[in-house]
Amino acid sequence: MPIVGVIGGGQLARMMQPAAINLGLELRVFAESENSSAALSATSIGDYNDYEQLRAFAVDCDAITFDHEHVPTHLLSELEQDGIAVRPGPKALIHAQNKLVMRRKLAELGLPQPAWAAAKSAEDVEAFIAQHGPKIIVKTPIGGYDGKGVRVVSDAAQVADWLGKIDSFGGELLLEQKVDFSRELAQLSARRPSGEFKTFPLAQTIQENSVCSEVIAPAPQADFAAAKEIARAIAESLEVVGVMAVELFETPEGKLLVNELAMRPHNSGHFSMDGCKTSQFEQHLRAVLDLPLGDTSLNFDFAVMINLLGVDEKNDFLAHYPSAMASFPQVKFHLYQKAPRGGRKMGHLNLTGSNLDELLVAGRNCRAILYNQ
Amino acid sequence: MPIVGVIGGGQLARMMQPAAINLGLELRVFAESENSSAALSATSIGDYNDYEQLRAFAVDCDAITFDHEHVPTHLLSELEQDGIAVRPGPKALIHAQNKLVMRRKLAELGLPQPAWAAAKSAEDVEAFIAQHGPKIIVKTPIGGYDGKGVRVVSDAAQVADWLGKIDSFGGELLLEQKVDFSRELAQLSARRPSGEFKTFPLAQTIQENSVCSEVIAPAPQADFAAAKEIARAIAESLEVVGVMAVELFETPEGKLLVNELAMRPHNSGHFSMDGCKTSQFEQHLRAVLDLPLGDTSLNFDFAVMINLLGVDEKNDFLAHYPSAMASFPQVKFHLYQKAPRGGRKMGHLNLTGSNLDELLVAGRNCRAILYNQ
Questions:
Q1: Kindly report the CA angle at A212 between A206 and A214, in degrees rounded to 5?
Q2: Which residues are recorded as binding ATP (chains A, B) (predicted)?
């Protein structure tokens, strides 16, 4: 029986388990702690920065994949040299780990993206502000997510701290034009080693405080063909294996610009769990094992995903199941068994049907019941 | 976090796990051996005939439920006396464990069923044959499933062995009229302790060699209202908790007769995993925890389930995934990780859509690829 090993014990590893159970595959998780979200499948606990621990976990697996993008590339290359199938491989993954590497690659591929530059000094930042300001975006090339490692600035002094320890970011910061976008979209896709590539329905993502709050699939009226071709160009040129999310800005003119890349199942694709013939988690497992990809078509006119973020350290969504389930028998509940903390991704709701407005209203009302302290 | 304990480590316990993961519940399984189909969730290994082992497993669970119907009723009553929530409770479960108890209860409720009698002797059998023969059905009241413990006979001599050890069956055999049915149906439902009751779409079941081979939901043109009311009458009068399957004969005149009962998720309800808003496994977990029941509506015009039975001790369905998945990207694969054996339930396929004939043809062709040695 094929064995997939996942580095990282977060909710993405957790949500691979139902797909593995259905397909009859074995999933093993290398988690950081005993009480991870994927604890059920955590067959090893350890430090993903320690090569020997990584290797010991990986050696019995048919393929290694990821719950997050924090494993140092050189360790993944070592695993590959030791004959382990790392999927996506480090040469692809570096583009999701390092935003400057991604920007340079997208430029080389001629794909649409915001104006950008690498900055080594305050002077570089000021020059970019002069050209694209008054406000620009500054990002640390590595380690950022959900708004962390990202600042909107109008003065180089606002990133003086980052400039002061620029070596810890690889010697450069990423500067980006602050795009005047009309909305954000996400194109989920999957590619397997033998080359097969499939996209999921293009989704619209709605952020609150830089964290994904709601997702609508398909995105109402968008340039589906352009999104698909951007994803295909990236997946094929980088030889990505597994699920990839391309986060996109849509300009007021309807043009798409690449914002970020994730090479793993992604929050913007959770709608697929209850909305599509094949979920992103099943598709990821198929892809990393080089099995034929599943049908990604949406079973409904619309699927809506509503994120459940932690309110504080005491909130307990489960305690509100009786009232939420009684009022919303059609809602699919997904809770991650994580210790609650303000703003933490604790779960999500999926709704499917033909009336988008009704789905959104029901989802938000259901969330309100779960949030009720 | 609520904990559900399942007695028995078969595929039904296994398939409760994805539902538990999604809902954020904890599932614990009391399995007979280390390598059970539900091994991932098997937190205890032991003998379900040993009260102390059962109790040690059950004491930390919010509710105890079942993968099979073999746990002796008196042990379940003891668990109840010890304050453990046994769901369904032994007073309901006995009707699924003992077919004579069921027949007597259905008669008391005035529900439609084949002509039947209890037999203690060859004379009783001959008398029933004289009235309902030339062929009748003889069943052992306890321990039968998938055609085991069931014989078609035209002479009492054909059950001489059973009559000779009749005490091991409780002192009586069950005799049933051999119904001239046009097809078999299954009404799946769920009830929770506070009384809420919901049915799933009525399904048609197709047996081969007394084992379920295919299921079609909804059953084309049937007396849906009658099936629903039979299920409701049984569930409410017996105070069933959890999912219950009522297996029905449909006579050429369209009348429904109760064949058998199962008080747990059932093979005839696997279509719900990919066909309905709420799967039978999620519904069962909700019911045994007394949570509001989910929406059971079918998301498609039709859902089809195709069973995968073991061919011999060497066959390996997984080895055929590459060709089966390539030809049938729309098929949902479910494999149970059981050691293969001829005739054993090894997995199933689910297909959903609007053209029933196309679904059946695709499902059978996909199965043929998986069966290919």
A1: 50
A2: 99, 139, 176-179, 184, 259-260
